[in-house]
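Example A, followed by Example B.
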Amino acid sequence: MGTKLSKKGSASIEKSIISAKKSLSSSDEMITLIERLGKLKESGLITEKEFQAKKKELLDKI
């Protein structure tokens, strides 16, 4: 069951990242995405490991 939620969360993250790549103009947008990642993690849609990996990916782009 956790895997299904995790896949849904990952898909949501990927959509957010793709959308952000199209319109990134400031680190504020990256911070917003990281906050959204945190909400996905808190709701159980992604794991801590997935959260950390995606957060690092976003921070590396700042």
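Example B, a separate protein, is given below in the same form.
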Amino acid sequence: SSTFVLCSPSNTDSKRDGSPLKQTSKSTNCSPAHCAQQTKTDTDGTQEKHSSAPAVLQDADKPEETNEQKLFKIASELLQTEKAYVARLNLLDQVFCTKLMEEANKGTFPVDVVKNIFSNICSINAFHSQFLLPGLEIRMGEWASKPRIGDILQKLTPFLKMYAEYVKNFDNAMELLKQWTDRSPQFKAIIQEIQSTDMCGSLTLQHHMLEPVQRVPRYEMLLKDYLKKLPEDDPDRRDAEKSLEIISTAATHSNSAIRKSDNLKKLMEIYEMLGEEEDIVNPSNEFIKEGHILKLAARNTSAMERYLFLFNNMLLYCVPKFSLGGPKYTVRTRIGIDGMKVVETSNEDYPHTFQVSGKERMLELQASSEQDKTGWIKAFRETIDIFQLKNESFKNALKDVEEVSVSNAELGVRAPRWIRDNEVTMCMKCKEPFNALTRRRHHCRACGYVVCWKCSDNKVPLAYDGNKTNKVCRDCFSILTGERVAEGKKKGILEIEAAQFSGSSIMCGFLQYCEKNKPLQKFWCVIPEKECLVLYLYKAPQDVKAQCSIPLLGYSVDDTVRPTDSPASFRLSQSKSIHNFAAETEELKQRWLKVIRVAVTGEVPECPQTNGNNSNMMDNNNTQEASTDST
């Protein structure tokens, strides 16, 4: 526990039965325990200074703390931490919340956003600052005659419902805080201004908002320690035990919230380390492990430094960035846990190696030691096992549904069997994982499936429920009404993996690209067979989401090279849109132009042939295999 200067109410302390203890010091500025460590007292009351004897001998001479002194010390720590806690509550309530509310009342951002972020912090602050803290201060002032805290803490128990409400809202508050910090410059500026003040102690608003979540477990810890020192027959024991029983129940919920908030804080840290480019801050993503690793290149087995972030549902394979400030890593590949395998490998030249293979990519990795290798393999296998277990429960739930599902003819006429919430971990329609914040569980009233809000955002009258309007899933809505529902964002137009496209493309390879007069940047460009009139641009060959897409139909193609242009450059233009490209060589440029000139007319282009091979097989410096060795 933290160290504090402990203050006793008088020079003469009392035993727990009220009788006086031996006078330990003339000073009134320290507790008996503290004073015992500073001075020794003669029978005539004079103080002796510490001798210059070795520390071991001095410790042996120190009188052992009495039980009464230990109890006083715990009570003093409770008071000191309560003072610090009230200061934090005041910062949240009277500074952050008040300043943001003042700006919200001007119409800059919604008032409800501020209310939902800070929840009932005002009520919590009022209780602690006006009741609990003053009560503790009075009790410590009269400790000589009333050495007890159980009765004081019992006053806290009826107000623990306030903490339950705060903890329940915590995930939502963190999400709103992130959302509006990104969305509103004024919102962000107010928070940053307050965070830069001395009263914040160089800590973020999120850190301070965690204080109420952590406070209840703190009470539990201090009470347990207090009860260990408290005699069985002490009059305060009954009150203290009763308080501990109720506070421990509340602490269980707080500890769960702490684990969630710690995970979200870690996700935020990683998000910043990746340059805020990877969308990983999601309650369904659980951080597992991170660390440096070496990657063995496929061609020459040279080892290259890489960094891994392992989550419950994916692995981020990253390259360190050697720059002052800014992002620390660049994501090369995102590999899903679904279908992943991990095996140990043996290599005489490179010890401690293992292989990670997923649907997206295979990696041969080298750990720093045998212990490090064992740790990584264990983390991977445990993560894969848990993922498969959850997936299996999902499949079993689907199997059970198929056995008792309502037929199309009975849909809406007969009440369905509802799938239990705990039988599934993801939406039974779109397969997205559920979480307590952004993707909650809902039931389709027609088929009984557990679905997310996006997949249940339809209503129809159901005959079995007296033709009352009920929420149903997309499929049931289509069957019951004959109307087709738009799929929504099952997978965005840009959310197709580059590797998936590249494997069945008319043309793919690296091109330099810029829009209008911006600087050229290197992109992995793909014209897929299935969407042969669209050009997709990725930052890397293994990216799971394109940076942009260009529908080629109707564009004009200009391959004249101007004095300021790069060699082997060409342009696509339509109205005010101008896209500039540059190939590695003139030959590659002509192969691209051959495909693009057909696509802009609306015709289906053919794969250009080079020595009998499909154009997917680019030159060595332009192939996906080449990028594998360098990644």
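On Example B: The first strand starts at residue 40 and ends at 41.
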